[in-house]
Amino acid sequence: MSEPALLTDGPADAPLTVVLAHGAGAPMDSPFMEHVAHGLAGLGWRVVRFEFPYMARRREDGRKRGPDTQGKLLETWRAVVEILGGPQRLVVGGKSMGGRMASLIAVEMPVAGLLVFGYPFHPPGKPERPRIEHLAELPCPGLVLQGERDPFGRPEEVSGYHLPGALRVIWVPDGDHSFVPRKRSGRIESENLEWAVESADDFLRHLSV
Questions:
Q1: pLDDT above 90: residue 16
Q2: What is the CATH number of domain 6-207?
C-alpha cells in the first residue's frame, strides 16, 4: 500500500491534532469535509485529512468504486497514525464510514479522543442491526454529532442502544446525515455546520486541558 497523502490545516503547534477520514461516497475535500476542517483549523486546531485507497484511485481515474475492505480501511488508518508520530496526541474521527473506522482505531490504539460527524449506527431502515458492539470497549472520550433525522440513527433509535459513558451524542437540530435541515425548520445548512464545529471545538478544549 502506498503512503496516504495528507491534507493539513491549522497550526502545527496545536495541543491536539484532529485526524478526519471521509465517508463512503465523498472525498476528503468534499464541501462537508472542507467546512469542518477549515472551521476547526480556524479555531486553533491542527486538522489532518486523508483518503482511503479506493477514493485515491477514483481521484486518479474518475471511476466510482465501492469502499475497500474493512481490513484495508483500518490498515490505512494505522499508516496515517504512524506517519503522524503515534496516537497519543491525536483525536481520530471523520464522516460516517470514516468515523466508524476511526472508532475501531480508538478501541485499538491509545488515542486522545474520538470525534465523529454522522455515525452509521445501523443500516438505513434497520435499527435492529446496530454497528456498536465495539463501542463498549471505547477507552477514550468520544463525541458523535448526529442529525436528528439521520437515517443511520435517529434519537428514538439510538436511545435504545447501550453506549459507553465515555461517548456523548449531540443531536444537530433537524439535520440529515450531512446535517442539512428542512426549510420548514427555520434553520439553514451553514448554521447547523457552524453549530457542529462549535460543539466539536468545545469537546476538544475539554480534552486538551
A1: yes
A2: 3.40.50.1820
